[in-house]
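Issue 218. Parser rejects a valid record. Input:
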Amino acid sequence: MEFLKGVSKKEILELEELLTQAQEGDIVKVNGAVHAIRDMGNVAFVILRKKDGLLQCVFEEGVTNFELKNLKEASTVEVTGEIRKEERAAHGIELRMKEITVLSEPEEPLPLPISKWKLNTSLEAKLNMRPISLRNVRERAKFKIQEGLVRGFRDFLYEQGFTEIHTPKLGAKSAEGGANLFKLEYFHRPAILQQSPQLYKQMMVGVFDRVFETGPVFRAEKHNTKRHLNEYTSLDFEMGYIDSFEDIMAMETGFLQYTMQLLAKDYQKELDILGVTLPDVSGIPVVRFDRAKEMVAEKYDRRIRNPYDLETEEEHLIGQLFKEDYGADFVFVTHYPSKKRPFYAMDDPADERFTLSFDLLFRGLEITTGGQRIHSYPMLLEKIGKKGMTTEGLEQYLDTFKHGMPPHGGLGIGLERLTMQLLGEDNVRETTMFPRDLNRLEP
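Output the parser choked on:
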């Protein structure tokens, strides 16, 4: 009987191993997808696409034991060859091919020119053929950077003593309330897709003190804009025993600082491919909601039309103002009106028209909403009553507070929006692997 002992070492080398372990003249084996073929006559350049970049291989008549005419773009292959230094090639090396084994071949030509530096096609075409368009080096780089954002979130919060949790996305009641819910039948009972893990992560503060989650959330909003999705990935955390909601903002600032350092260290290749300069997060300015509206009105001669919320144009102008006057890409806007915040938001004791809450704007777009929560059971009941709500469906959530909860607060970050702003894209679908919006349920 055979017993598996774990991951076995294979003779196939990855690109990083070629760069760090292989020497000029070594005979090595690599595999990958044929990204492009450039036939120069007796010599051809075959570009292999690996998970971490492109490798230039050289086909030579009489040296390579294969017929070039039998090699197709998008084939997956295994290649044996000799390592050679070549300054003009990516990574400064190339592989002089001796043998090629075809592992699979495409049934038809590629529908998109993925070997081009930029995909000169519409966003709709890219999304319709997403598994193919993401084979393009620049398109793929967006999601490597997005990986870095999630990795930074996880790693930083682990370092800060947080516990990762996973909460259900099917529920009987929404954390946020309102009508923008995806409703479905759950074994002959009404159910909804969760807009947020809010209620669950608050309950888990009573268990672990500090918790976080990365997962999908669902909003049945009939928006068809460049900044809205009906399913997106939310980076959430909740922390107990806080002194004020400023502890939450400080934690997010720490996450951003940690993550920008991580991106500079481990994702510089992708940043260079996309021409991204990382923002300065050494310090993030903080401004009250009402003061931010006044500043924008004064500087840009703009009338305040909605005293209870920020309009899209106002968010943009706040970002512009803080960039022009303070050199800041991020700005925390605090003390949002109670009228526009959910029932669990803690009101400001100094002025109950406002809450101890905030949004984080990044280059004029809201990417985070957070704040301090009500941890007193009687106060929660009072706030629910003021909101004209009932406790139906909230019984288990409220029972948690009957049995004692520490002062706590937290936030949710929209991953796709954060990625969009970091990369300078103008449509959130560009940084969503498989977008779900008003018109799209496939692929």
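Fixed in the parser; the record now loads. DSSP finds twelve helices and 18 strands in the chain.
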